[in-house]
Amino acid sequence: EFMQASWDIEEVQAEGIQHLASFVKDKSAFPYLQTCTEVITLAMKTHIDSLDLQVEGCTLLLEILSQALEQGVMMALDESVASCLLHTVRKHSENEEFLSMLCTLLMMVSASEVAAKNLRKVGIIPDLLSILRRFLHNDKICFSCCAVLWSLAVSESSADQAVLESALPVTSAVLQEHLQNGVVAESACSALWALALQGCLTDSDYEPTAALLLDALRMNPERAVLVKNGCLALASLVRLSETAALAILLDSKGSGVELIKDEFRLHLDEPGVAEALCLLMNEMVQYDEVMLDMRSQKMEKLLCEIKLQFPFS
């Protein structure tokens, strides 16, 4: 009430946020702090020029959302909160340090399907792509933005296809830039998978995207989630085009089929990886020429191994 009575006075909003922040350590205060997200974001929007207030508000929202995740509470922030966050993104789009924090917040927010839908509704995707282009070197920003893109692309309501299609070159650039950073590469593979599911690729994209995903698998073989999501992304590409299947067989850096075998043996105890590999192979054998090549490379043997390893799945 104190904050709402004096929206226009920056000192009041700053003191209010600081006072709310003093309750963060008290677990019993969490249910009340949950109800304050709109007040905090509105204070940020009203005093958008004050970087100090933006940082304090963003820090407090991160604390509240972190507690929510710890307690298994999904906070579905409404459209007005999404709109306020978008205003903040646009106003401070050059401030790399603050954007790093803000993109982490957006990633946490977008874990809720309702919040993801609201973020997309207010038109945040072009802003995310612009941030990625500008700060391609920043691994933390790239990780968060790709995770947000994944959430926005897979959320149920019909996507703005043209906007999502423009995300493909940027997401590919992130993966290319951070191939050796497993955390970022994993996030970028997930985003590429979501874009493939939404049919955001053209004929000229299938081969280079498949080659890039194979590179990610080669560079990070030990990361089970990356392998799983990379294979699911490849399966989506192969479903759309035989070109992608041939790119896997004829990759200039070595046989994609041999890579599939290696990945399975490396993750023998991971049913999620085996399932993604089976899905990829299932898509590949839809093409006669590809199936003949897979037979010649003794893929039946691998399938029998998978069946023996997971007899009850």
UniProtKB/TrEMBL annotation:
It catalyses: L-threonyl-[protein] + ATP = O-phospho-L-threonyl-[protein] + ADP + H(+); L-seryl-[protein] + ATP = O-phospho-L-seryl-[protein] + ADP + H(+). The keyword Transferase applies. The keyword ATP-binding applies. GO terms for molecular function: ATP binding; protein serine/threonine kinase activity. InterPro entries: ARM-like, ARM-type_fold. Keywords: ATP-binding, Kinase, Nucleotide-binding, Serine/threonine-protein kinase, Transferase. It comes from the Eukaryota. Gene3D superfamilies: Leucine-rich Repeat Variant. Its EC number is 2.7.11.1. This is Serine/threonine kinase-like domain-containing protein STKLD1. The lineage of its organism: Eukaryota, Metazoa, Chordata, Craniata, Vertebrata.
